[in-house]
Dihydroneopterin aldolase
Amino acid sequence: MSFDPAKKYFHKDVTDRERAAFEAGIALGMVIHQFTGIPLRRREDVKILEQVIENAVKAQPFKIDAKVSINIDLGNTDEPYEYTTLKTKNMDVKITVKYGRAVVKAALRHIDELDYNLAYIEEIREEE
Amino acid sequence: MSFDPAKKYFHKDVTDRERAAFEAGIALGMVIHQFTGIPLRRREDVKILEQVIENAVKAQPFKIDAKVSINIDLGNTDEPYEYTTLKTKNMDVKITVKYGRAVVKAALRHIDELDYNLAYIEEIREEE
Amino acid sequence: MSFDPAKKYFHKDVTDRERAAFEAGIALGMVIHQFTGIPLRRREDVKILEQVIENAVKAQPFKIDAKVSINIDLGNTDEPYEYTTLKTKNMDVKITVKYGRAVVKAALRHIDELDYNLAYIEEIREEE
Amino acid sequence: MSFDPAKKYFHKDVTDRERAAFEAGIALGMVIHQFTGIPLRRREDVKILEQVIENAVKAQPFKIDAKVSINIDLGNTDEPYEYTTLKTKNMDVKITVKYGRAVVKAALRHIDELDYNLAYIEEIREEE
């Protein structure tokens, strides 16, 4: 099978860099909308969730790396209602997409200046 | 703090068994609607996701135990589009709620006869 | 078909009130974990989303009524990053479950005193 | 305010076409992971959900159009367990992103040949 059996569905003018940017967007949209809302109580819950999010990114096509760091205040773990839930602003995510020779590194983090959880492209290039 | 600072918001006629049944329903509704859709490619992804779901259940009030088993066929992990995503029918979940002296054990699994992912109560009792 | 083909999967000691409480919990767990995160920009977006949430509750078994009110500040709709996303604390939900002769009215709303989005039972009774 | 206060967070080499492709990916990742799982029973539920998904896409930055069509078999609406839930394969989505002079039209639909819900770029161009 060719390296991308779905390539023929894309417009022929889409460059590898554009495709890699598109794939990076899909991955970050997935992270935001799939994982926010998960209840968290203990520090161990946080560590293992970071791995699950990384695995989910890497499960999808052309995502070759992912690093997730969750920055969250946990409550007093002995009180029934003092747990928290994952919010997008708690996540610091970096992913790498490789499509053909194009590489895109993209990130998701809360930008205080914008008061916005921004998904953005940190690096885009074509390998030699 | 009393064992349940939210008790006063519930109608006074709600028994401990009824409250435990309510809490069990919340937990299973959470599992279904929070976790389905997560991309999965490798067997290790599945094992760690089971733990994350168990942790999420136990993070919420009065859930004292959770056991999650995901039964899923993974594709050929080398092909880009041959991964899968978690579906409700892949989950076999058992949770235990304890509220006051009431204990409820509830489950979620696909029932072939109904062709339905059924959340149901397997055991309900009041401890001596 | 009997009124509940799934009844045999429940423990025989589960009363109709307990079952109704369980179903109410499932519905509110679904609302919290399915809908939080939806992007919203215009007042019309909010109104129609309230209806979609009500429909989703009523689609599931034994939920006979649902009323959803979303209380949310929308930003300046002309600036690209000034939209918002639905959070659980924005929702004021009331649902009614009827199972056999048992009726449960349950609610979800942010309780300031607890700083918690509480799902609770407002009324539970058996019809004559 | 400039048309994009977040532009400075992106690498300077990112073209408008690449940015538009990235934004299209975010939108389709959001659609897949936010909306699948919603319970549906009546034809009216489906119609209004299509609008909510369109509104959600258009709420986010630089998405200027969205068209969602849900193709789904509803069960016998009188039986308690015969409703359905939205799956990604039921969705036929077309979105348009405009960033600067770049326009991207992207789609999400189930591709039988791949047995995959493919997000892809149908058109990419720079306006005169």
Q: What stands out?
A: The first helix of chain C runs from residue 16 to 35. The mean pLDDT of chain C is 95. The interface with chain D takes residues 1, 3-6, 30, 34, 37-42, 44-45, 48-49, 51-52, 55-62, 79-81, 83 of chain C (CB under 8 Å). The beta strands of chain C are 39-40, 63-70, 84-85, 91-99, 102-111, 116-126.
